[in-house]
Amino acid sequence: MRELQGRVAVITGGGSGIGAALAHACAERKMRVVVADVEADAAEEVADAVRQRGAEAMAWAVDVRSRAAVDELAKQVRAHFGKCHLLCNNAGVMVTRPLLELDEKDWEWSLSVNLWGVIHAVSAFVPQMIAHGEEAHVVNTASIVGLAALAQGGLGAYTTTKFALVGYSEYLREELKAAGVPIGVSVVCPGAVTTRIAESERNRPQELDTGPAPAMPGADPRVDAIPGKQSPEEVAASILAGVEENDTWILTHPEMKPLIEARTRALLAAFDVAGDRQRS
Ligand SMILES: NC(=O)c1ccc[n+]([C@@H]2O[C@H](COP(=O)([O-])OP(=O)(O)OC[C@H]3O[C@@H](n4cnc5c(N)ncnc54)[C@H](O)[C@@H]3O)[C@@H](O)[C@H]2O)c1
Q1: pLDDT tens digit string along 7-21?
Q2: Does the beta carbon of 18 lie inside 6 Å of ligand 1?
Q3: Helix (H) or strand (E) holding 81
Q4: If residue 140 lies in a helix (H) or strand (E), which one and from where to where?
Q5: Residues paired with 188 in a beta bridge
Q6: Does the predicted model carry a pTM greater than 0.85?
Q7: Residues 268, 266: Cα–Cα separation, whole Å
Q8: What phi and psi values does residue 68 have, to the nearest 5 degrees?
């Protein structure tokens, strides 16, 4: 989507970290901004700050786990701004617990925010985008661990959701392209970013509480322990550049390339093994 000025951006998880930085970056491009977050006060604060720089902004409290709540958000956006052009599915949570020690509640919380949250918003907003017919874009924030599994820090549930989100996003992009509608889709796969993601538990609903995560010797549970940390502002700038170019994958951390190369090489080698087995 080349033209951002005057367009409407909806950002889930806009109350903190990458989402808040995105709200400011969108405002800088003279977009109108909807800051949606489960933390109502945080969303209000960011919307206020965005308004102070002269942009139009609206805050909305939403738990993306709820389809009804996300539908209401879409209704409010239509009532206030008429159309949504840029949907940033950024809300996300990180559970840190070894895979085999994950409780069903850990899975439910991870999947309901990181995957169902995106499905809900795409289902609520993309039909509106198709109907208004103007150029539009969906950005889903996955992670570098959506492209390669890092067996550290108890990121099993998180990794599962982010791999799924990469597949979902690639498929959505292809389907919308095949339908001939002017809606691009990008998936963002950042490495470590200095945000509050390691404090995700602050938003875990009580009914899904599983108690304190166990200590994990030899592994740092914080994604931001990976070298090459970026600021949310740097990531937000990369995201908008990727939206303008309609990038399939918005990659922010070039130092992560060897990790993906190693996985891709191993994957391609598995085809060679398949060929060898077929011939023998
Ligand atoms: N920080 C990193 O190192 C990193 C790396 C790769 C990907 N990401 C992804 O970036 C995205 C943004 O996270 P961040 O790093 O800015 O963390 P953050 O914790 O600072 O921000 C996440 C935001 O999502 C909101 N949120 C949580 N649950 C929600 C729900 N159910 N409904 C609505 N909003 C909800 C939180 O209130 C918060 O404002 C996430 O999807 C995360 O997985 C982060």
Answers
A1: 999 999 999 999 999
A2: yes
A3: helix 67-81
A4: strand 136-141
A5: 141, 250
A6: yes
A7: 6
A8: -65, -40
pLDDT band at 151 (very low <50, low <70, confident <90, very high): confident
Residue type for position 209: D
Question: HSE of 116 in the Cβ direction (CA atoms, 13 Å)?
Answer: 15
**What is the maximum alpha-carbon separation in the chain?**
70
Residue 152's pLDDT is what? 77
Active site residue 171: no
pLDDT at residue 227, rounded to an integer: 64
Banded model confidence at residue 153, pLDDT cuts 50, 70, 90:
confident
Using DSSP, state whether 235 is helix, strand or coil.
helix
From 186, 203, 226, give the residue whose CB has the most ligand 1 atoms within 8 Å, as the site to mutate: 203
Is 92 touching ligand 1 by the criterion CB < 6 Å? yes
The CATH number fitting domain 8-255, selected from 3.90.1150.10, 3.40.50.80, 3.30.70.1290, 3.40.50.720? 3.40.50.720
Calpha distance 210→231 (Å, rounded): 31
Domain ranges of the chain: 8-255
Nearest CA to ligand 1 atom 36: 13
Q: Which residues are paired to 86 by β-bridges?
A: 9, 137
Residue 230 beta carbon below 6 angstroms from any ligand 1 atom: no
Whether 31 contacts 86, CB under 8 Å: yes
Answer whether 57 contacts ligand 1 (Cβ < 6 A).
Answer: no
